[in-house]
Amino acid sequence: MRLVISIALTACIGLCASSAAAQQGDAPRPRYLAAIQAELEAMQIPAACEAESATRARCSYRHQGRTSQRELQIHLVYSDETDTIYFYVDHYLEAPPDAETTPAVLRRLMELNWQMLIGKLEWDPSDGEVRLAMVANTDSNFDRRTFRSIVRTLGPLADRYLPELERLGGEE
C-alpha cells in the first residue's frame, strides 16, 4: 500500500512540475541544447543559440580568419530527430553553376575532400553556394571532446583554404 501511494505521489509531482513549466511558458527544448550552450560558453565563444522546436536548435558564432582576413559565420544545427549536430561555414565561397571558373573550383573541392580527414566541402548547384561542413553524431551521447574539436577546427580549416579557392574562382 505504501509503495502504491509513493509511486502515485511521485507521478503526481512529475506531472505537476511539467504542468507548472508549461504554464510558465517553458517549451520543451532539444535534449543537448543546454550542453551545447555550456560548451560554447566554456570555450569563451560568444554564440547565439535558440530552440526552433522541441527537437531542433540552431546556434551561430563568428570566426575571424587570419590567412584570409575574412570573418566567417559558423552555424550549428542540432537535431534530436537525426541525432546529429551539423556544423557549417555559411556562404564560404560562391561557385555559380554557369561560371567559367566553376569546373576548376569543383575539381579542387573534390581533391580537398579526398585529403581532409574531417570536414567536407559541399556545393549547391542551384545557387553556387559552397559550404565547409562537419557532422557530430549524438545518437549515444553528447561527446564534449568531439564537439570542442569540431568547434576549434572548423574556422581555421576554412580559413586555410579560402584564399586558394577564391583565387581559383576569380574572387580576388
Account of the protein in words:
With 172 residues, the chain is α+β, with helices and mostly antiparallel strands. Helices cover 41% and strands 27% of the residues. The chain is built from four helices and six strands, in the order ααββββαββα. The chain has helices at residues 2-23, 33-42, 102-115, 144-168; strands spanning 48-51, 56-64, 71-79, 84-94, 120-123, 129-137. Strands 1-2-3-4-6-5 form a six-stranded antiparallel sheet.
Highlighted features:
alpha+beta; 4 helices; six-stranded antiparallel beta sheet; 172 residues
Overall pLDDT score: 87
How widely separated are the two ends? Answer: 79 Å
Which structural class is indicated by helix and strand composition?
alpha+beta
Gross geometry: elongated
Biggest sheet details: 6 strands, antiparallel
Strand order of the biggest β-sheet = 1-2-3-4-6-5
Please report the total strand number as a whole number. Answer: 6
| Helix and strand sequence | HHEEEEHEEH
Low-confidence stretches: 3-24
Helix segment tally: 4
Beta-sheet strand percentage?
25-35%
Q: Mind telling me the C-alpha Rg?
A: 21 Å
Helix coverage percent: 40-55%
Summarize the topology.
Blueprint lengths: L1 H22 L9 H10 L5 E4 L4 E9 L6 E9 L4 E11 L7 H14 L4 E4 L5 E9 L6 H25 L4
Short description:
With 172 residues, the chain is of the alpha+beta class.
